Automatic annotation (TrEMBL):
The keyword Cell inner membrane does not apply. It comes from Amycolatopsis pithecellobii. One of its GO terms (cellular component) is plasma membrane. GO terms for molecular function: ATP binding; ATP hydrolysis activity. Keywords: ATP-binding, Nucleotide-binding, Transport. It comes from the Bacteria. This is ATP-binding cassette domain-containing protein. Coiled coil: none annotated.
């Protein structure tokens, strides 16, 4: 596992472990997550996988404060996220990019990424939007940082282009740029390679590694592409029907009988978790 020595991001924020402890989420009578525990170590790439309906999105939404949890605790270092509302996450150092793009298609790439800065902008989003004069110096500083982040993502040529006009893979990058614009210590990626070609997926894998290695940011991702997951993850947590069935390094997860059974439904026909799943891999 690659870890920044001082456990700091390049932007100087302290990187803390994300601890999911005994997490249970219920929807009426359905137990979507059943006493799930795992830790995302600082400076690691941690994948959350499992067949359809396993509880991955529920877990993401519980960490993000979107879903109310029934039992358990979620902490980022000493900060208790259990009762934290979704809109406070950015300020606490968690950036999230979404499975379905949530960009404003008519706004420029620059403005979309700048939206991610509002949690850090003294005057808040409203002042930025109104271009209040007393915030012009800080707006310039934030603008420079937005440009730097877009350079890192390789999308500076699109800064003045409406986000909706970009190819799909580049729109994904804008979404990640916006999540990085909050200067996170933890980046949550919801199916970053969904809908991508093999070449775009390989580029995305490199980008995620660069986020960890160059920015020092921990990454928690949900992803269906097993090649990407097993190629870049330091640790893999596997859910099935809301229960944790494996939490280990990729090689151990790939050869786990419980994981093979969950994906293939039949150990005898097992290859590995990267094989042809009975249910869609995720
Ligand atoms: N808002 C909700 N209300 C009721 N049930 C829900 C809700 N969200 C998820 N569920 C149920 O919780 C279980 C876990 O769903 P979840 O979406 O977390 O799985 P997933 O692993 O993300 O699946 P997929 O790979 O298909 O996205 C499923 O049975 C699902 O139907």
């Amino acid at each position: 596992m690659t870890q920044t020595t001082a456990q700091q991001t390049r932007s100087g924020r302290r990187v803390r472990p994300l601890r999911v402890d005994d997490l249970t989420v219920r929807f009426g009578g359905l137990v979507a997550l059943d006493h799930v525990s795992f830790t995302v170590e600082p400076g690691s790439i941690h994948a959350l996988i499992g067949p359809n309906g396993a509880g991955k999105s529920t877990c993401f939404n519980a960490i993000s404060g979107v879903y109310r949890i029934a039992e358990g605790r979620i902490t980022l270092g000493e900060i208790d996220l259990t009762k934290t509302r979704a809109h406070r996450l950015a300020g606490l150092g968690i950036g999230r990019a979404f499975q379905s793009l949530s960009l404003s298609p008519t706004s420029t790439v620059f403005d979309n990424v700048m939206l991610g800065r509002h949690s850090l902008t003294a005057g808040g989003f409203l002042s930025y939007g109104l271009r209040a004069p007393w915030t012009s110096r800080s707006a310039r500083r934030h603008g420079e940082r937005v440009t730097e982040i877009c350079e890192f993502l390789g999308i500076t040529r699109y800064l003045r282009t409406p986000a909706g006009a970009l190819p799909y893979g580049d729109q994904k990058r804008v979404d990640i740029a916006r999540a990085l614009a909050v200067e996170p210590t933890l980046l949550m990626l919801d199916e970053p390679a969904a809908g991508m070609s093999a070449g775009e997926t390989a580029d995305m894998a490199r980008l995620i590694q660069d986020v960890r290695d160059e920015l020092g940011v921990s990454v928690l991702l949900v992803e269906h592409d097993m090649g990407l997951v097993m190629g870049i993850a330091d640790r893999v947590t596997v859910l099935d029907f809301g229960r944790l069935i494996a939490d280990d390094v990729p090689a151990a997860v790939q050869s786990s009988p419980a994981v093979i059974h969950a994906y293939l439904g039949n150990e005898d026909s097992a290859g590995d978790a990267g094989g042809e799943p009975g249910r869609e891999a995720g």
